[in-house]
Design brief:
hpI Integrase, Chain A; mainly alpha; DNA polymerase, domain 1; about 350 residues; three-stranded antiparallel beta sheet; elongated
């Protein structure tokens, strides 16, 4: 069993003699890259584990992975998201051979994305990239899994930002009248943006006071929510039910029978709504400049301070587990005012008999 290093153009190759045949394995732009490939494969030949993998580029395998994995196991909403992320990987790795991608290449991609997007977005992308490379290894497209020992990007823990009740009222006073009930519903239910804009009148039972969350608006289409826990029933108060009844008489007709269409009767484009209506209303109301998702956090805060059962709260928000609820809002459960109220309740229950 013999091996050597050869160079063609600007590329170094590991050349292995297997019987009467010579196998050329692409190493990289440096001799050190080729030496690493040579040593790995010499050991594999010696141990009887040598795999002659087919030459597949990342671009080609990305398409294979979408067809074989994503379309088989991921809901339609997630499929479009995954396809979008894979296209971003393809821009970076492109026609690089899959078997030549190393941990260093993944680290380079991760650093690049951390400089462009939020850590949570970069982390999700790295997780998906590692999943792709794991499947490639399991499917025999690579001799090793380069993502196996790569740590996911660290996400600094941020305290959630909320509006207090007086601030919420100020926002409602300044938001465009067409969207007032939509914002009120977001505050009082904690629905995610795509759940709110995807509500149809068939999803709301005003007699029993329940919203059936079974759609998610994605690029103008109504799709199923991505997770099982997102599909749920959310209880609404009598006051909100009355507001919704009034709104139903004014609501523009839309093809999808949406509860909250745009002023033109078409699905809301959330980014445009935030830019044209939500942010200006916050500024005019003179309250802190929060993100739209803060209304969901505001709902959780109101629920906690009204002492709703944590398990019920978690279900209403559509969290995957109660641990998610505590991880996000544990600091609210532990604030001084809330703790003092809980101690008073304990004392009242024990000594008040």
């Amino acid at each position: 069993m013999r091996g050597s290093i050869a160079k063609k153009g600007n590329t170094y190759y590991a050349v292995i003699a297997i019987g009467s045949k010579r196998k050329w394995l692409r190493g990289g732009e440096t001799k050190k890259d080729a030496e690493r490939i040579l040593n790995e494969n010499l050991v594999a030949v010696q141990e009887g584990n040598f795999k002659d993998v087919q030459k597949v580029t990342f671009r080609e395998y990305g398409k294979i992975w979408i067809e074989s994995h994503v379309k088989s196991y991921i809901k339609e909403t997630g499929q479009m998201e995954y396809a979008h992320v894979v296209s971003r990987f393809t821009k970076h790795f492109g026609d690089a051979l899959l078997q030549n991608i190393t941990g260093a290449h993944i680290q380079t991609f991760m650093v690049k994305r951390l400089g462009e997007v939020q850590p949570s977005t970069a982390q999700r992308e790295v997780i998906i990239l590692k999943e792709i490379l794991k499947h490639a290894y399991q499917g025999g497209y690579t001799k090793r899994n380069p993502g196996e020992f790569i740590k996911n990007p660290h996400i600094p823990k941020k305290e959630v930002t909320i509006l207090d009740v007086p601030e919420a009222y100020k926002l409602l006073d300044k938001i465009h009248p067409h969207y007032r009930v939509a914002v009120l519903t977001a505050i009082l239910t904690g629905l995610r943006a795509n759940e709110l804009w995807g509500l149809t009148w068939d999803d709301i039972d005003l007699n029993t006071g329940k919203i059936h969350v079974r759609h998610s608006l994605w690029k103008g289409k109504l799709l199923e929510p991505k997770t099982e826990t997102s599909t749920r029933k959310v209880d609404i108060s009598p006051s909100l039910a009355l507001e919704l009844k009034k709104w139903k008489l004014q609501c523009p007709v839309s093809k999808l029978n949406l509860v909250f269409p745009s002023r033109r009767g078409v699905p809301v484009i959330h980014h445009n709504f935030v830019k044209c209506y939500f942010k200006p209303a916050l500024q005019e109301a003179g309250v802190k400049n929060v993100k739209w998702h803060s209304l969901r956090h505001t709902n959780a805060s109101i629920r906690i301070h009204s002492e709703q059962n944590p398990k019920y709260l978690s279900g209403q928000l559509g969290h995957s587990s109660i641990k998610t609820t505590y991880d996000l809002y544990g600091h609210i459960f532990n604030d001084a005012e809330f703790s003092e109220t809980q101690v008073s309740k304990l004392e009242s229950e024990f000594y008040g008999r």
